[in-house]
Structure formats: C-alpha cells, structure tokens
Hints:
This protein is of the alpha/beta class. It is 35% helix and 21% strand. The protein has helices at 21-36, 56-70, 78-86, 101-109, 127-136, 156-167, 185-195, 226-232, 234-251, 260-273, 282-285, 304-307, 409-413, 420-429, 439-459, 474-481; strands at residues 11-16, 45-50, 88-92, 115-120, 144-148, 175-177, 209-217, 286-292, 294-296, 299-301, 318-323, 335-340, 347-354, 373-379, 383-391, 400-408, 464-467. It has a 9-stranded mixed beta sheet, with helices on both faces. Strands 3-2-1-4-5-6 form a 6-stranded parallel beta sheet. Strands 9-10 form a two-stranded antiparallel ribbon. α5 links the parallel β4 and β5 (144-148). The relative contact order is 0.14. The model has no long low-confidence stretch (mean pLDDT 95). The protein binds NADPH dihydro-nicotinamide-adenine-dinucleotide phosphate and the ligand O=C1O[C@H](COP(=O)(O)O)[C@@H](O)[C@H](O)[C@H]1O. NADPH dihydro-nicotinamide-adenine-dinucleotide phosphate binds at residues 16-22, 50-52, 93-96, 121-124, 126, 149-151. The ligand O=C1O[C@H](COP(=O)(O)O)[C@@H](O)[C@H](O)[C@H]1O is lined by residues 180, 218, 237. GO terms for molecular function: glucose-6-phosphate dehydrogenase activity; NADP binding.
Amino acid sequence: MSSQIIPVEPFDYVVFGGTGDLAERKLLPALYHRQLDGQLSNPTRIIGASRSVLSHEEYRKFARDALKEHLKQGEYDEAQVKIFTDRLFYVPVDAKSDNGWDQLKQLLDEGKDRVRAFYLAVAPAIFGDISEKIRDHKLITKMTRIVVEKPIGRDLASALELNDTIGKVFKEEQIFRIDHYLGKETVQNLMALRFANTLYEPLWNSSYIDHVQITVAESVGLESRAGYYDKAGALRDMVQNHILQLLCLVAMEVPPSMNAEAVRDEKLKVLRALKPINPSNVERLTVRGQYKAGASAGGAVKGYLEELEGGVSNTETFVAIKAEISNWRWAGVPFYIRTGKRMAGRMSEIVVSFKPIPHSIFDEAAGRIAANQLIIRLQPDEGVKQSLMIKDPGPGGMRLRNVSLDMTFAEAFNARSADAYERLLLDVVRNNQTLFMRRDEVEAAWKWVDPILKSWEAVGQPVQAYTAGTWGPSQAIALIERDGRTWHEVI
Ligand SMILES: NC(=O)C1=CN([C@@H]2O[C@H](COP(=O)(O)OP(=O)(O)OC[C@H]3O[C@@H](n4cnc5c(N)ncnc54)[C@H](OP(=O)(O)O)[C@@H]3O)[C@@H](O)[C@H]2O)C=CC1
Ligand SMILES: O=C1O[C@H](COP(=O)(O)O)[C@@H](O)[C@H](O)[C@H]1O
C-alpha cells in the first residue's frame, strides 16, 4: 500500500441499478481497486439493489464475472476477489412498489452507525421514486449520502424539477452529483498546476493567453446506448457537464481553499459569465456534426444512421463551440471546445496557447518563434507538456527550436492511473463534495446550454456530415481557422 493511501471508515454502499452496465463496468471494478490498495476497512458492505431476483451468491457471481471481464490483465486476484465478493449483498427492490424495501432496511439496520451511501445507477426517471422510498422506509441516518448520476435533466426545466424532487428528501450537503471527469487524475492535476506553482497564475489571463482549446474526442460510436443518445446528442451528453466542468477549472479565479463550497463558488461565477449564444450568433459560434460511414483502427465502421438501424435523425454526434467568458480575466480570449463520437482517436486534452512574444531580437536565420503552449492530456497517456523555445544545440549559430517539457504520468510515477470512479466513490464516504457538482452549477450550465439548443431549433441549424475516423466536419476547422488559429491535433 502506498504511503498516501489512507483507509476510509467502514461504509454501506447501496447501488440501485446494481445489475446494470455502469455497476458492472465501472462501480464494482472501482471498489475492488480501492480494496486492492487497502482502503476498504471491515465491515464495509456493497449492496446491489434492482428488480432482478438474485440471491447474495448469485450477485457475487455477477460481480466476479464483471471483474473478470473489466479488470486489466494481472489485476484479478482470486484471494482478493474472494474478500471483495464476501462484502457483497443483494436485495431485489422495485423503485415503483414496496417490494423488497423492508428486506433492504433489515440489512442496513445491521450497520446503523456506518456511513451509508445510496448510489442511483438507474434511469433519472426513477430518481424521485427511489428517493421517496428511501425516506418512507426510514433508511436515512445522520451519515446518509446520495450519489446521483448524469444526466441531470435534458434542459433547465427538467433539471430544476429533478433537483427539486431529490431536494425534497435530501439536503444539498447530502447530495453528490457525480461528473466522472472531475475524478480524472489530470483534471485534479490542473488545480495542482495552477494553484501549487508560482509560475502559471501571473500569466493566466488575457494579457498572456491567446486562446484555450478543449477537445474530448472519442473513437467509439453509439455502443448499446442508441435509445438514450439519440434523444440527447453531444451537447447534452458531453458539453453541459464534462466539458463545462473542465472549462470552469481552467477559467475560475483562485478559490481561498480547496473547500468544496469555495471551489464550487468560483466555478459557478465562470458559468454565469459565459457569453450567451442566441439565434443571432449561433451559426457563427457553433457547429453540429453527425458521422457517416468511415474507418476506425478496427476497420470499416457504420455511419450514425446505420447504427440507428435505418432511423432518421438530426441528433449531433459532434459539436464545436467558440465560447467566451465575459469577465476581466478572460475578455477577448476564446475557449474553443469540441467533442464527438467516432473521431480520429480517443483523445482528451486542454491546450492553453500563450500569446506570441511581443518583439523578436533574433534574425530570420533563427527560424520561426512558436508561441508557448501548455497541454494537459486527460487521456490516453495522461500527462502535462509545456512547449518552450530553446537554442538548437551545436555550433551552427543561433537557430531556435520548439521543444516540450514532457511529463507523462505513467513514466514519471511508474504507477497505474486510477479510474475516476475510484476517487469519487470514496470521496462520498469521506464526505468531500469538492469534486461534485452543486445544484446551482448544474442549473447555471443548463442556462447557457438551453439557449444553444433553442437557437439551433430556431434557425434550423443542420448537422454537418463527417466521415467516421476523422476530426469532425470541415465547418469545425473553419470555426477556428476564421480566427487565424488551428486545432491541436496530435494523437
Ligand atoms: N453506463 C454508463 O457508462 C453510464 C451510465 N450513466 C448513467 O447511469 C445510470 C444507469 O446507467 P446504466 O447502468 O447504463 O443503465 P442500465 O440500463 O444498464 O441499468 C439500469 C439498472 O436499473 C435497474 N432498474 C431499472 N428499473 C428499476 C426499478 N424500477 N427499480 C429498481 N431498479 C431498476 C436495472 O435492473 P433491473 O432491470 O433488474 O431492475 C439495472 O440494474 C443512467 O442514469 C445513465 O445515464 C452515466 C454515465 C455513464
Ligand atoms: O458521460 C459520458 O462519458 C463517456 C466518455 O467518458 P470517458 O471517461 O470514456 O472519456 C461518453 O462515452 C458517454 O457518451 C457519456 O455519456
């Protein structure tokens, strides 16, 4: 066990939707990893809960299969898996009826003094039903928390309604709205870079920064989520939450501390300062795209409409936006954001491009002086790169070269990078809300996104076709090139 890994106090995690895809692929493997690192103390329990009728033993088998399938080679250890599955229990419950709730209460009553977390890994349509059942069956103790998955609404009105529904049962300090991007190692590192170094903060403003790019490119297509995705689209699925959270961490003022309220207050100010996009500027500031058949690393891939099996759809699988923040620090600094499915590769990064030097003392033979860039790579190969101009070594005179100070975490620390859920699941137990979204943040994000959706409708903005396996439609390239800049595109 590494010296920084401190065990958390014993807890009971009830995973509603314990048999679902999220539990299988993410939550169970994440909790297993926390056990491997020695962070789970006895008598911690994980309780799966959903309608399927399973015994504890059958659920343990479900978990073993999930771990076999989703852990990386060498991570599945029979002895550890046995300890882990001994912590697992299962209760069949139905959010829509009283079936199973008394049994759940009986089981939970064995651990009345432990931290109790309810994870809603179910469709948002039943968040309200489950919250009410939890209250009506008296499952709330002093140490109870609830974890809510995205999507939190599909527009401002539905987000307000959902927040009200959960808020009728739980206090804001008990509600953990998860955005798994905030649990990613490099995202947290962004705060370390900005606030634990003297170097960047004095330059972190419109006097020295030319523009910022945020790219979250995925190589996957719809997978098995057509029903959800076709109603959502890239703006709701990725921008309203993950990308705006990244933008907030880049743009926020220095909070007085890492305290959850202090950090979230600063993020909220950024969201409120985003310049509105409306029908008069939406076509200039945004691009919608939809992939057509093309190729990926694995070979030929279908287009979006073919994946929908012949459906007709105007849903965007790609979006690019030129966003601006109306405050002193960022006036005139564009934040170019883009995200899409079936792009040229899986690559997420934030590029902070500094302004060029104001005057060069070197003659033409020295070559072009590139502006400095700070590249924060979220995935794959998490790390940070700072580009700098140096002199080309050797006696050939003053020739300049653009090089990178490159810190790839896997190489620098020789350590496995923890999945975002590992950190966030235990932050709930530790009662630390810093990396979770507060109600007003979610609503402020919708207040900016909603008018974009409405403007698209008002002007009838079409989706531009792009070939699967590329960087998106040509209009997205034009969006940034019109301003004399280019997307950073290194995989
Ligand atoms: N999968 C992912 O990667 C991600 C998912 N999410 C969000 O997480 C949530 C769950 O997603 P996902 O796991 O993919 O969904 P799945 O459809 O795979 O799982 C849904 C789960 O809910 C249970 N369930 C459905 N109806 C009821 C009910 N009436 N009472 C009790 N349990 C019920 C199902 O079990 P049963 O049928 O046995 O009742 C199942 O365990 C969604 O809100 C999704 O948007 C967010 C980010 C990523
Ligand atoms: O929330 C979501 O995120 C995933 C991308 O997450 P990552 O950690 O793999 O980058 C995305 O595929 C999905 O559509 C979206 O709902």
